[in-house]
Amino acid sequence: MSNYSSDLLRLLEERGYIHQVTDAAGLDALAAKQVVPGYIGFDATAPSLHVGSLVQIMMLRRLQQAGHKPIVVMGGGTTKVGDPSGKDESRKMLTSEDIAANIAGIREVFERLLTFGDGPTDAVMVDNDEWLSQLGYIELLRDVGPHFTINRMLTFDSVKLRLDREQPLTFLEFNYMILQAYDFRELAQRYGCRLQMGGSDQWGNIVNGMELARRMDGSELFGLTTPLLTTADGAKMGKTAAGAVWLNEAQLPNYDFWQYWRNVDDRDVGRFLRLFTDLSLEEIARLEALEGAEINRAKTVLASEVTKLVRGEEAAGLAERTAAETFAGGGAGEDLPSLAVGDEGMRIGAVLTALGFTASNGEAKRKLAEGAVKLDGETITDPGFLVSITAEDEAKLSLGKKKHAILRR
After folding, report:
1. pLDDT in tens, 239-266
2. d(CA 286, CA 120)
3. Which PANTHER family does UniProt cross-reference here (predicted)?
4. 281, 342: one domain
5. Residue 239 domain-assigned?
6. Got the DSSP string for 230-299?
7. Above 80 in pLDDT, residue 90?
8. Is residue 260 part of an annotated ligand binding site?
9. Is 269:287 a contact under the CB 8 Å cutoff?
10. Is 176 known as a binding-site position?
11. Helices (H) and strands (E) in the chain, counts
12. Sorting pLDDT into bands at 50, 70 and 90, what band is 360?
């Protein structure tokens, strides 16, 4: 039985989103009586977010499902500075044009998962460059500077970890937490925002923003963080040997996105169904209870439900059919990644690396030596093997049981 009276905190609790809340009773009471605008910030360092950000995006979706207002803050301003959290090195500088293009790409996913508009619970997307670029340096120092002590800033994990490892932390990045705190205060004034959410590594930054608004304006704000999301084997969510699992199709094909979810560890299935799908808790409990080979049914449901939300119904259906044809019928589904080897053909190692199946030619050689590579069902072990295909034909390349591609001329 939940301890909460508001739909919002009950929903977040039962689906596993809550790690820390600054004042759970206060937020619960507020959410039970009025629409609470809440925000999460996303930096625009790439044209797509990856799976590591999906739990935050889903939290904004839950906020809206519970009758509240999501504010998506794109960090057009803070991206120019760089968040030191969990980073060993400074972020490369992007131009304003790069940042604008990245924001346009990132918006696609939010438009699938949130309802935007002018209504009281409709989502809005704002760019913190709007107010951060207008700030005069002297004005910032005078109005905001007195509310931060260097002693306290040095205790934040994002700063401490870099200093402990004796890695340089620039003055530019040291300012990041001040700008993020200023964002919360500004959003409270502009949009009546009362809640900031984020990953557990953002706790210090969130509390900073609450404190700044309290000291400058007497506002009462709230913070809520999610647990640090790792897979059952301890890996960080959204990272694979082949690279980041991007949310946008332009950065990662639909089939590969679907496969990422289909291949999760058995132990993660229930948790991921609660966090990343809209299935009922009763249905999730039923799927989670499946055992042995049956658990694969639950993984297929997980893969299709997440792909449906992030990439759309058509992408999910096509990926699921492709997987069924590829694995069950030995055929080649239409949504598999494909590669043209050209008139001259390509060496098998180069093909594996070009597809992203292996990270290097050295890894390709090892996979070939292990007998893990098949071309139209025939095992290939010779790294010098030349793949050449006639104009009207195509061939199916497989690495192990899970990676497949179509090769054409």
Report:
1. 666 678 999 999 999 999 999 999 899 9
2. 36
3. TYROSINE--TRNA LIGASE, MITOCHONDRIAL, TYROSYL-TRNA SYNTHETASE
4. no
5. no
6. B-TTSPBTTEETTEE-BSSTTTS-HHHHHHHHHTS-GGGHHHHHHHH----HHHHHHHHT--GGGHHHHH
7. no
8. no
9. yes
10. yes
11. 18, 15
12. confident
pLDDT per residue as tens digits for the range 335-346: 677 777 777 777
Q: What is the pLDDT of residue 82?
A: 56
Q: Are residues 85 and 156 in the same domain?
A: yes
Angle at which helices 54-65 and 96-113 cross, to 10° = 50
Average pLDDT over residues 127-137: 91
Mean pLDDT of the chain: 87
* SS3 call for 397: strand
End-to-end CA distance of the chain: 61
3-class secondary structure, 5: coil
pLDDT band with cut points at 50, 70 and 90 for residue 89:
low
Amino acid at 170: T
Does this model's pTM top 0.85? My answer is no
Residues 121 and 202 in one domain: yes
Name which of 221, 230, 241 is nearest 201 in CA terms: 230
To the question of whether residue 182 is assigned a binding role by annotation, the answer is: no
CATH code of the domain containing 33: 3.40.50.620
- pLDDT of 13: 97
Of the candidates 307, 327, 347, which is a domain's last residue? 327
> Do 30 and 75 reside in the same domain of the chain?
yes
Sequence-ordered list of residues with C-beta below 8 angstroms from that of 232, at least 6 positions apart, any chain: 265, 266, 267, 268
Range of the domain at 306: 253-327
Alpha carbons within 13 A on the beta-carbon side of 157: 10
Segment 340-365 mean pLDDT = 79
At 197 the three-state DSSP class reads: strand
Say whether both 202 and 119 belong to one domain: yes
User: What distances in angstroms separate CA 60 from CA 2, 224, 239, 301, 330, one per listed residue?
Assistant: 21, 12, 22, 23, 41
The reply, when asked if residue 17 is annotated as ligand binding, is: no
Which DSSP helix (H) or strand (E) runs through 198? strand 195-199
* Spatial distance between the Cα atoms of 111 and 131, rounded to a whole number of angstroms: 24
Q: What's the pLDDT tens digit per position in 6-28? A: 999 999 999 999 999 999 999 99
What CA–CA distance (Å, rounded) separates 287 from 298? 5
Strand duo 124-127 + 69-74: pairing? parallel
Our count of domains for the chain comes to: 3
